[in-house]
Amino acid sequence: MGEPARELAGLEYQGDAIRFAHRIHALIPKCPLLENFSHGEVRLLAQFMEVYRAEAGVELIREGDGGDFMMMIIEGRVDVNKRDRWNTPQLIAQVEAGRTLGEMSMIDGEPRFATCVALEPTLVGVLDRENLARIIVEQPLLGAKLLMELVLMLSQRLRATSDRLLDLMDAQSQGSGGLLPEP
Amino acid sequence: MGEPARELAGLEYQGDAIRFAHRIHALIPKCPLLENFSHGEVRLLAQFMEVYRAEAGVELIREGDGGDFMMMIIEGRVDVNKRDRWNTPQLIAQVEAGRTLGEMSMIDGEPRFATCVALEPTLVGVLDRENLARIIVEQPLLGAKLLMELVLMLSQRLRATSDRLLDLMDAQSQGSGGLLPEP
């Protein structure tokens, strides 16, 4: 590839991810998305990703923005904030190397759900929708594996989030009155 | 196929889904999973699915059970119930033809999240994990499309559920104290 697919404001382009394949492979134990990937598959995937570097304090993703890519944290630490009803950012998670960010927007094209800020110098691998589509056409089995892992990850998050929601609704004794958006 | 892949207690095996392909195709406008499928793709998919019929009152899926298949409602209406902390079933949704049930367990193999009961005579198409795996190997592009739609569906449900959860947490002024299970 050689050319960055996009300008990411405030981020420094580091080239395509092939050079980082061994570091991405080393993330596997802490990376739900890659947990069933072989070294060869990581190398293949890396050919479709680009790497960027962010200094501490830089926004990687901003809530409400458009954006058709996801990021995998290769190194560093990231705060995830979402604005509450009073428009005040609230910390909803703090994540580290191995975590992926922004998968939902990569897939559904909806605005970003939360803002992700680097807490220290952070390296991220970027995969955008166009390259995901290329993987599916050019490397269908790798594409299916990646999509399967995405489905698995989202399914587990949805279970956990739905459990939390139902617990809170129970606590408020709203049980029978509160249908889930989608069960 | 000709032989049912499994006995589903209380359900009546109707054969493989090819015979129902035109009815499944007619579901597309109300079926998020199939929204981008052509008639040919629906026919192809139907070769990997089986159809069952349930009388009113029959449980299609029981909360807590194992089960590696999803169901697509071809005809009928289904209540979705989940037990609250006092073990009392609470209605969390009522769904109709076009809706899919049980995708999460098909993918992650975890116990069923909720109980699904037919409210009237109901026809369902069943896709299990083994046949999903066969689709991916034998029809990789169809497999990728199906997985992509699953990711999209789960992503939209996760957004909606997370929004509801954050709203409730806001309402309880737990904002900054409540990290989401996964953002």
Describe the structure.
- Two copies of one chain form a homodimer.
- With 183 residues, the first copy, chain A, is α+β, with helices and mostly antiparallel strands.
- A five-stranded antiparallel β-sheet of chain A has the order 1-2-9-4-7. The first copy, chain A, has a four-stranded antiparallel β-sheet with strand order 3-8-5-6, with no helix packed on it.
- In chain A, α4 (129-138) packs across α5 (140-171).
- The termini of chain A are far apart.
- Chain A is globular, with a radius of gyration of 17 Å.
- The first copy, chain A, has five helices and nine strands, in the order βααββββββαββαα.
- The interface between A and B is large, with 55 and 55 residues.
Classify the beta-strand content of chain A into a percent band: 25-35%
The largest sheet of chain A is: 5 strands, antiparallel
Biggest interface, and residues per chain? A-B, 55 and 55 residues
Query: How many separate helices of chain A?
Result: 5
What shape does the CA trace of chain A take?
globular
From the N-terminal CA to the C-terminal CA of chain A, the straight-line distance is: 42 Å
> What is the assembly state of the chains in this entry?
homodimer
Work out the radius of gyration of chain A: 17 Å
Low-confidence stretches of chain A: none
Number of E strands of chain A = 9
**Topology of chain A as a string of helices (H) and strands (E):** EHHEEEEEEHEEHH
What number is the mean pLDDT of chain A? Answer: 89
Q: What portion of residues of chain A is helical? A: 25-40%
Structural class of chain A: alpha+beta
What's the arrangement of strands in the largest beta sheet of chain A?
A: 1-2-9-4-7
